[in-house]
Amino acid sequence: MNNTEMTKTTNEFPNKLYLTDDEMPKAWYNLRSDMKKKPDPLINPETGNPVTLEELTHIFTEEGARQELDEDTQFIPIPEEIQKEYSKFRPAPLIRATDFEKSLGTSAKIYYKFEGNNTSGSHKLNSAIAQAYYAKKEGLTHLTTETGAGQWGTALAMSCQKMGLDLTVYMVKCSYEQKPFRREIMKTFGGKVVPSPSMETEAGRKILAETPDNPGSLGVAISEAVEAAVKTPATKYVLGSVLNQVLLHQTIIGLETQAAMKKYGIKPDIIVGCAGGGSNLGGFMAPFLGEKLRGEADYKFIAAESASCPSFTKGEFKYDYCDTGRVTPMAKMYTMGYDFIPPTNHAGGLRYHGMSPILSEIYHQGLMEAHAYEQHDVFEANTLFARAEGILPAPESGHAIKAVVDQARKYPASEGESDGPVIVFCLSGTGFFDMVAYGKYNNGEL
Ligand SMILES: *Cc1c(COP(=O)(O)O)cnc(C)c1O
């Protein structure tokens, strides 16, 4: 290969796709506006009727409630203060994984959008900032939430600190003890971290009276966080996935990806993401799904989920609660059941019982594929990626990587130099806080 050819190849498929500040998206994209058949409405379980805006404001911020119900506005402006916070860690890098391609021996061109480049370590900060901003603007002083694995709690602690809000995180007691690093980041950003069950709530005191050594569970932590929010003035409980408003905020991921790929003249063929409650997947895919729904382009969409909580591939499409605490309305979605307790699994963030109602409807219409992956295969793919690209992926993100590996291997490099598809995937977070799980994989214990 001579120099001219090398330059040509590099220009056609550059390694880093940059956006300038001016090119940054200034509005979130509302996928529902382009769906002919919209997701079924949220239902108030007490009345059996679609929830009203007024009812929703009992649980969510007013702007959050409006966003939850808005099916028509195509673009919703991102307030300047949120844009300013985004600009500290966005645009997120969009990079071609050339060494990963080589290690797979594929002619596919693989790009990844890396969302782990902020201290909270994942995409969750994109929605945490927005939710904290609206809470502050509407006069709230305090938020509560629960955390198991710790990513959401960390993102929210950073956001509440920035917006001048108090935050109480009810952290499942065994995680509180086993994940001291997560706990201490939240405290560093000013969050109050309470091991759950605690003596601070009736729900916690009741459980501790019966079983003083109770290690806690997500269900109990949610009950405590909800009770604290209801009983404390100017306080609300917030969620980090599944909801329409969360997916909306996460569209910043896909909008940046779409803008950068357009700028460099690269058209993706296959778009891949991992799915827990669907917020990074939906936010990443939404602008591309919009193009498909409007008949402007066609893509193959692949959702990668955990075999231990396979909502898309094994769940039922029905009305269920969005949260284990049953404070949110019911949504029509693919679900394992709100009381489903997944087997212990390190992909903590993929253990939501339900799937975003928007993505559930998209999947139901046959616009997207879904595959479920086992833990061992996910860590194998992650290790391959880490060694090639020098980024340690979160176990959750590894599900997307495993899906990419399976797609790329269908196009061996030996069978045609440049015929492979362009694959782009969302690398939702870093694996720095999951070294116990990596240790188990390295020791052959997974
Ligand atoms: C929380 C989390 C997920 C799953 O949540 P979604 O709402 O499905 O995006 C995926 N990856 C990482 C790194 C996470 O922290």
Q: Could you name the key traits of this structure?
A:
globular, single chain, binds pyridoxal-5'-phosphate, alpha/beta, Rossmann fold, 14 strands
Structural class: alpha/beta
Strand neighbour order, sheet with most strands:
3-4-14-9-10-13
Ligands, ions, cofactors: pyridoxal-5'-phosphate
The count of β-strands is 14
Task: Give the CA-based shape.
Answer: globular
What's the CATH class of the domain at 3-27 and 81-122 and 244-442, please? Alpha Beta
* Fraction of helical residues: 40-55%
Euclidean distance between termini CA atoms: 44 Å
Radius of gyration: 21 Å
Number of helical elements: 18
Known CATH architecture of the domain at 3-27 and 81-122 and 244-442: 3-Layer(aba) Sandwich
CATH topology of the domain at 3-27 and 81-122 and 244-442: Rossmann fold
Q: Which stretches are low in confidence, meaning pLDDT under 50 for 5 or more residues running?
A: 1-10
Q: Which percent range describes the beta-strand content?
A: 15-25%
Main sheet characteristics: 6 strands, mixed
The overall pLDDT average reads 92
In short:
This protein has 446 residues and is α/β, with parallel strands linked by helices.
Describe this structure in words.
α13 (279-293) links the parallel β9 (270-274) and β10. The longest helix has 20 residues, at 244-263. The model is unreliable at 1-10 (pLDDT under 50). The chain has helices at residues 3-12, 53-56, 62-69, 80-86, 98-104, 125-137, 151-163, 173-178, 180-188, 202-210, 218-231, 244-263, 279-293, 311-314, 357-364, 375-389, 395-408, 435-442, and strands spanning 27-29, 75-77, 94-96, 109-114, 142-147, 166-172, 192-196, 235-237, 270-274, 300-306, 316-321, 330-335, 369-373, 422-427. It has a domain at 3-27 and 81-122 and 244-442: Rossmann fold (3-Layer(aba) Sandwich). It has 446 residues and is an alpha/beta fold. The strands form four sheets. A six-stranded mixed beta sheet has the order 3-4-14-9-10-13, with helices on both faces. Strands 7-6-5-8 form a four-stranded parallel beta sheet, with helices on both faces. The chain has a two-stranded antiparallel sheet with strand order 1-2. The radius of gyration is 21 Å and the shape is globular. It contains 18 helices and 14 strands. Helix content is 41%, strand content 16%. Bound molecules: pyridoxal-5'-phosphate. Pyridoxal-5'-phosphate (PLP) is lined by residues 122, 124, 151, 241, 274-281, 349-350, 394, 396-397, 428-429.
